[in-house]
Amino acid sequence: MASSSSSSSSFNFNGLFHALQIKLEASTYLVWRNQLLPILTFANLLPHIDGSASAPPSESVDSTGKTVTNPDLKQWMDDENQTIIILNTSLSKEAAALTVGLKSAREIWLALETAYGNPSVERIQLLRDSLRQMTKGDRSVADYGREFKSVSDQLAAVGQPVTASELNHWFVSGLGPAFLPFSTTAGALYPSATLSDLQTKAESFELMSRAISGLNPSSPVAFAAQNTQPSPPPQSQNPSPNSNRSGKQYRNNGSSNRNRGNRNPDRNSDPCQWCGIPGHKANVCRKLLRVVNSTKSGGSSNKSTTVDEDAVAKAFAAQCNTGSSDTSDADWYVDSGASDHMSGVKHSLFNLKTIPGNSRVTFGNGKSLPVSHKGDTLLHNNIKLNDILVVPNIHKNLLSVSQLTKTNDVDVLFSHPMFYIQDRLTRKVLAQGKCEDGLYVLTNKNKAFVASTSTPKASFEEWHARLGHASFDVIKNLQSHGVISLTSLLPKPTICSPCQMAKAHKLPFNNNDKRALEPLDLVHCDLWGPSPVTSLHNYRYYAAFIDDHSRFCWFYPLKSKTEFYDALVIFLKFVQTQLSRKLKVFQSDGGTEFVNQKVQKLFEENGTFHRISCPYTPQQNGRVERKHRHIVETGLTMLFHAKLNINLWVEAFSSAVFIINRIPSKILEGNSPFEVLFKYKPDYNMFKPFGCRVYPLLRPYAGHKLAPRSIPCIFLGYSTKHKGFKCLDPISQRTYITRHARFDEHLFPQTSNTPPTTLNSIDITTFIDCPNISYPTDSSPPSSPPEPNTSTKAQTTPCVLCPTQPTSSKAQSAENQTNPNQAQPIDSPPTTPPSSSSTSVSSPSISPIPTPPPPPPPLNSHPMQTRAKSGIFKPKYKANFVHSSPLHQALFSSSDPKTVTSALKREEWKEAMRTELQALHKNKTWSLVPRPTNRNIVGCKWLFRTKYRSDGSIDRHKARLVAQGFSQVPGVDFSHTFSPVVKAATVRIVLTLAVTNKWHMHQLDVNNAFLHGKLNETIYMEQPHGFVDASKPNHVCKLNKALYGLKQAPRAWFHRLSIFLKSYGFVCSQADPSLFIFNRNSCLMYLLVYVDDLILTGNQRHSLDAFINTLHDEFSIKDLGDINYFLGLEATHSPDGLFLSQTKYAKEILTRANMMDAKPAHTPLGVNTSLTSEGESFHDPTFYRSIVGALQYLTITRPDLSFAVNQVSQYLQHPTIIHFQEVKRILRYLKGTVHLGLHFNRPGKTSIVGFSDADWARCLETRRSTYGYSIFLGGNLVSWSAKKQPTVSRSSCESEYRAMANTAAEIVWITHLLRELHALPPDRPTLLCDNQSALFLTQNPVAHKRAKHIDLDYHFIRELVASGKLVTKFIPTKLQVADIFTKCLPRPQFEHFRSCLRLGPPPVRLRGDINT
User: Fold this and answer.
1) Which Pfam families has this protein been placed in (predicted)?
2) Could you give the CA distance from residue 1258 to residue 1296 in angstroms, rounded to a whole number?
3) For residue 764, what is the DSSP state?
């Protein structure tokens, strides 16, 4: 009911028009709204605009129970009309136009709110930009403040108010440089003033500035006129009774209100503008005349007269013509305040017109003079002045700046002591004047205008273009030397678009030696890698974090980039806990490992600002880039010095970081990063050479009491988690961490020419002397025998930076004889430990240290007999997958080349490219022509692919030249690109007919199919890279035939093939354009086309062979024999028919999803599974879409997956974790049924039977129904579907009826297709449904309430039934096969319906080709 009936009738509308003073416009929405809401609230009419009041019913029931007219309706309508009247009364003409056609107050209010209070992003940005860029200019502070307040109110009206600090800042910034002292003072106020207070203070400052600068009302120094119509006008020397009504007034901007205190001014009583004495004016003032004369003579009659007074007196005398009566002066005085040109004489004007009435011009002193005529003139035949006012009583010609710039399209530039009039378009200077006695004067003589000179003249832009877009300094230099002359002033350097397009370069980077004030204020980060060599622990990357304050670096090795997020989480928790500070700013580049949702969410939760360097600008992250160089150079130096294997780069880089953090730095004033961060100096006594020999204490690892206490190891740096050293056992490849270690800093085990240290310098009891250790590599197994040593040069690798001692060949041979067991090369590890008798003597003064025998195995007391007790030891072999089989060789071989440069380095790829070019030349694909002008040239690219056999061995190397179709221009290089492909249902129907009739099915492949297509457009392509014709290097290829990569290539090939097939006698099917049918002389052939893959079948074997030969003569084809593998479909022949599956493709999906080892499930979805869009988002939507898309293609032969895939496909836009769990359930079901496929058997009778079903309102969010159908041809499943209906059904009958209509449409299509194939069954198609109501609607054309709202498009099923083209029958639900397409079924029912779809395992093969 209406809520305003109680008091709205008492509202008085008499004073409404006076109360609504503000009309709604674009700039007054907020004020209008604040004005209107109290009125509507007071009148209790507010519910009519906020939507809370709804119209009462038109009828009501009285106390007697009778239905009568509701009395509240009339009251509600009166209140509604009153609200509309109030709204329309407050609208301007512009706003009222928006309410035309709107009937309710609510609609009017929403329309106005949308139009003027629309909070769109574009409008908010426009208002904010307008507010930020607003300047005061020549306006007063009051006018500027009103406009500023209006824009800020509009922002508040749309719900985006500007903060007070921003308002004050933008307001003060727009005042200009004249208010700089005020701006400085206002910025220092605390607390900050409001905008109204700030505006009031600015107005006071403006008045004070005028008073200080001498611009007082009694001393104007220039004329200024403005067209206005004041009421009443001031009196003149010749007052007229009608002057207040018909006279046109011209008054001064700043002085029109200065004499308002005297309402009846008298000419004789006004004071002089100079001396202030009444009775005369400044033009006859004797005191002013004495000041001017004394100034001109060099003296002064009044000692108190200042220089400023002299200048003002001279200017005032010049404009008042004091002391001069020459009226023939033709000079023009520039006045920026005058709105019209003025002259005292009329004889120099043309187009002279008399001004009727009493028109007057008002001057700065408040007085007015009459205007007699209006005319035009020319200044030196160059500048035309229009509408010049003739004022007989003035003695100087006034040139209005505003009128000049408005009517002549020129600019006036003032630059003391000259000013210029310049053409706005050509920038040519038309005239110039100078400043005389404080006024700018334009002398109407030849000298005032620019004359021609002997130097060439042109504008700056023309000279810039003539001189090859020379720089501003060059043109300025030429002008200063008089070589060139400019017709315009030399402008400030501007941005030239062609210069920027051709000369754009990187801006210089300044040296940044600044540091953050505190640790973790700024951290730089970057990833290094991938390393060409995998480390000892399979690392390929590392992440470096550098603190900007201390330059301390943290080092995290990574196996892949995906591990960076985990490393970042660990780093954040570690440093923030250790340093008790939060990370403020994180600097990195824009790599995907840094810019992703997980990292951004982590920074948001941590309160860290993530600063990203610009694309392709690594200099902005230069701190960590230079740290990479320092780490890599230091680590590689240590590796090369120790001659260690390069796979130890992680240990070397980690040690380098450990050392760099403790080395003094110049930027840290001689301190180390460690000292700056932790506030104490590091201990340098612990540093040892990387890669030297170390003897760690290994007594706790000894197997028995007689085992060695230590063994010689290699020092690999310092542990970050322990106070100890990392020592590598080169034999067992085990790393020990200990603090008890002895170092031989002069011996590096991998350097054969390093003399060992004397025994006295190493405090150790026993050890195994193994001076030369080498690492096994992946290329040679550990059990391979060592290569014989032929020379010392092959065994040692001296440092290239160190000088080597020359040795003679005799010395080398002698050394080889005395040292037969010299150290082996790094690639060849020793297979057996060296014996004591074969130990080489490195120094003649030191006896060789005998090697103890290998320790005996520990004695075990348990009774089990083991290999060790029996003395059986087998060597350990590492798996060598590279040389195991051709398949592994193919899998582990290098990838195909990506560029022509890398391909041309290998002979096999060069030969493949030559073969491809020979085929193109043989086909006459293009011809070389000169490069045309104004035509698009399409690029080309080489693609390389290695073809493998089924066992993994290389079949051939394939090179393909493709055109870069993305560079084609639509409408020029191509028009239509659509090319039809055969439907899956058509393939199944043709296969069914072939199996039924026992026809042979041939699979054909067209070689280079697209090259046979003929082009209708003229296309030019660049010559192939690497094979450019040396005699015609600048020519291009004019394509005569289609090429792979062109947009229209598939369409051109299909058109070419269609023409050939039609000429042979084939007819294109109307039901499927990719199906061609040949029927002549009892010969029947079907041809299915899918791009370049063809399937041919027919009733005569010789006709098939003849057609294949003819097709081979026209195109280069390969006859692949009986159909075996077509479009990813695997066809297996059996005595009973054909088995169609996608086993290989299913395994590829499972492998891609890492579900090959998953536990199988019995059904694709659980019973009663219902999906919704709610839930936590899945972290990788792209992977979700990839898997679901692959499953959709799998449903070509797997109808049991159709319903499940349809359900998960509805959430591709925003998948959740629950959705992905259901996808995994489908994959688990696929894992257990990967070998299932469709069976096509030879039926006894061919007939069409369709099953239709619907699940009413299955979707919980949209309440739309899901329908499905399956259609059988002779017992073989040929078509099926599982979809959601596009509209909501009001009953189960409606949803079932719509499902039957869709099924009938598919049956009609199949009927048309079979009629074209000349294989239409004699029996009528049958449609089975389990809903009696829907069947009744199809069989009985009786209209009732259930069927009125169903679209007429679905009633065509009635016509099919009535005409006898379709039979509808009832089927029990337990036999409804289509249930598998509409809902989640329990396992027994699901497996039963799955078997009814003829879906099962492949036929069993006992031996060879014998099937069972």
Assistant:
1) gag_pre-integrs, Pol_BBD, Retrotran_gag_2, rve, RVT_2, SH3_retrovirus
2) 13
3) -
CATH of the domain at 1267: 3.30.420.10
C-alpha 608, offset from chain centre: 23
* 335 is annotated as an active-site residue: yes
Which ranges in 20-120 belong to alpha helices (H)?
29-42, 47-50, 71-89, 93-96, 105-116
Catalytic-role residue among 335, 1093, 1200, 1253: 335
Q: Which residue has the tokens 């306006």?
A: 139
Helix (H, G, I), strand (E, B) or coil at 49: helix
Q: 693-696 and 609-612: which strand pairing?
A: unpaired
Regarding whether 1324 and 1256 lie in a shared domain, the answer is yes
How far, in Å, CA of 823 to CA of 811, rounded? 17
Which token pair is 135? 């300047």
Domain boundary among the residues 71, 97, 116 is at: 116
* Stated pTM of the model: 0.42
Mean pLDDT (whole number) for 242-266: 39
Contacts of 778 (CB under 8 A, 6+ apart): none
1367 with 1327: CB under 8 angstroms? yes
Domain shared by 474 and 561, yes or no: no
Domain extent, residue 673, equals 522-687
**What would the pLDDT profile of 51-73 be if each residue is shown by its tens digit?**
777 788 877 777 777 777 788 88
Contact (CB, 8 A) for 445 and 473: no
Which residue is listed with tokens 């999803």?
A: 1153
- The residue type at 780: S
Tell which residue, 1073, 891, 867, has the closest CA to residue 983: 1073
Q: How far is Cα 626 from Cα 676, in angstroms, rounded to an integer? A: 20
Q: Which DSSP helix (H) or strand (E) runs through 845?
A: none
What would the pLDDT profile of 70-99 be if each residue is shown by its tens digit?
888 888 888 888 888 888 888 887 778 778
| C-beta of residue 993 within 8 angstroms of C-beta of residue 1248 | no
CA distance 1070 to 1066: 13
Angstrom distance (rounded) from CA 8 to CA 1064: 89
Helices (H), ranges, 158-283: 164-173, 180-187, 195-212, 243-246
My answer on whether 445 and 468 are in the same domain is no
Same domain, 1087 and 1031: yes
Beta pairing, strands 1075-1080 & 741-744: unpaired
Check if the beta carbon of residue 388 is closer than 8 Å to that of residue 347. Answer: no
Beta bridge partners of 91: 24
DSSP string, 224-258: --EEE--SSPPP-SS--TTHHHH--EEE-TTTTTT
Q: Number of structural domains, the chain?
A: 7
